[in-house]
Amino acid sequence: MIQTIQSYEQAVQALPLRLRREALSLPEGDRDRAEELRLRVGWPMTVLVEGRERSLGGPPVERGELDQLVEIASRASLHTVLDQVRRGYLTMEGGHRIGLCGTAVLREGEIHSLRNLSSANLRPLLADLLPGDLPKQALKRADLKATITLDGETLRIAGLNGNIDATRLSGQMERRAGTPARWTFGLRLGTLNVADYLPPTSKGGKSQPWRLDWMKGIDVEGPLAAERLIIFGIPHTDFSAPLRLQNGVLSADPIRARVAGGSAGAGVRAEATSGGLLGRLRYTLENVNALTLSKERGQSQLLSGTGSLDADVSGLLRSGADIPAALTGTLGFTLRNGELDAGHPGTFSSFRSLGATGTLSKGILTTRDLHLDGTLTVRGYGTINLLNWTLDYRLNVSGPGFPTLPVRYYGSLDKPQRSINAQGFLAKTFGSLGNGFLTILDRVVFAPLRFLVP
After folding, report:
1. What pLDDT, on a 0 to 100 scale, did the predictor assign at position 281?
2. 361 in helix, strand or coil?
3. Which helix (H) or strand (E) holds 67?
4. Average pLDDT of adjacent 10-residue blocks, the chain of 454 residues
5. Helices and strands, number each (H, E), in the chain
6. Positions of E strands within 66-166
7. pTM of the full structure
8. How many whole angstroms separate alpha carbon 99 and alpha carbon 409?
9. Total Cβ atoms within 10 A of residue 165
């Protein structure tokens, strides 16, 4: 599980000098991915990095070094942490956790203390909270200040303030002892691009299966707020969500935010199962300024109007490569009083209403009621294959001064083919309309993709 390099370096300060030097010999590229250090009497110290244990190459750990570890971690005041030691662990300054194994000393049938320590696991604070397959660029730097106190079995982190990577962070956290430990929090972020913290997907549609075991070993709950959260390229401002992760189930509902002058709402549920992550997302947009949204997403073809969107998708995901192939659900959008080509408004560009509803199944988006009402009237249906980036659409187009023209779009989304079934009078009518008419038809076909798909 990933933590910052600073978290690792702070945690190893509890080690006796020889073991500390050994731990700091770990390359920086591995420190931010280290989950825990394992110390066993008679064996060399090892480190667990992304689920794999490896030796640090030093001589075997001695029993006296484990005693020194406890003395340093407790600040030579073992009596003040006996309640923790009886339960087989010790929380040191900074919130880092040490698991202990030894011979129990009983008094009146209860564990009074431990002696003859045989092993210890040193686990940095953030290892309890974060998955181990985040992108390498994530959580590389932290500059945080907080007041950390330990009250019996409760660890409190108050007045948290600073930066993680380029994101401002403030709030408080609390951890109560248990199996698993229970965390509560209230956190506020500055600007964060969610894509920087999602497990990576390699090119070619292949990626490593997600490690989900960490979700079952943690209990976390609290409100999360953000000034600006970028999700799938869409900036969400004034973001708020109640988060809960318990027994391997992550939920956030209701999620609220502002998007392009309108509002966004969502609900998320994701469960870690033996077959992968079983997830569902409900997402809505209302009264969104489509032109502002197009610009914020960096789209070269600008679409304008006041829009709404409704999506409900679910699926069983083993890795990022399963998106969108494993997703099924429904999607729909409407736009009112806008321009198909807001960058170059023209005769055929304006419309009163544009919309479509559709289904997503195995990576194929199917729409059966694509419609445009404006200077042009368009009715159509078709599919967009999001796996191989192809389409097949059939339209009926009519307008002032010409009858209905049947048009088909097919092939690659990058360079689609266009087929117009026009003969005789229709062919002459079509020829008189010019290239501007064709450009607008292109925009009609791609409108669902530009509004629905990130």
Report:
1. 96
2. strand
3. helix 63-73
4. 58 88 87 82 87 86 87 71 67 69 57 58 56 55 76 81 87 82 91 77 57 80 96 92 94 97 97 93 96 84 90 91 89 92 78 93 91 89 90 86 82 82 50 57 63 50
5. 9, 23
6. 89-91, 97-107, 110-123, 142-151, 154-164
7. 0.71
8. 63
9. 17
Q: At what angle do helices 63-73 and 17-24 cross, to 10 degrees?
A: 90
**Under 8 Å between Cβ of 427 and 412:** no
* 226, 190 Cβ separation under 8 angstroms: yes
- Nearest-angstrom CA–CA distance, 252 and 442: 38
Element (H, E) at 330: strand 327-339
Question: Is the bond preceding 180 in cis, omega lying within 30 degrees of 0?
Answer: yes
Pick the closest to residue 33 from 122, 131, 164, 165 (CA basis): 131
DSSP one-letter string for 267-293: EEEEEEETTEEEEEEEEEEEEEEHHHH
Helix, strand, or coil (residue 140): coil
Six-digit token pair at 139? 């959580």
Residue 350 to residue 371: CA distance in whole angstroms: 14
For residue 236, what pLDDT is reported? Answer: 96
Query: Can you tell me the distance from the alpha carbon of 215 to that of 129, in angstroms, rounded to the nearest whole number?
Result: 9
Residue 164 Cα to chain centre, angstroms: 16
β-sheet bridge partners, residue 367 = 358, 382
Residue 261: predicted pLDDT: 95
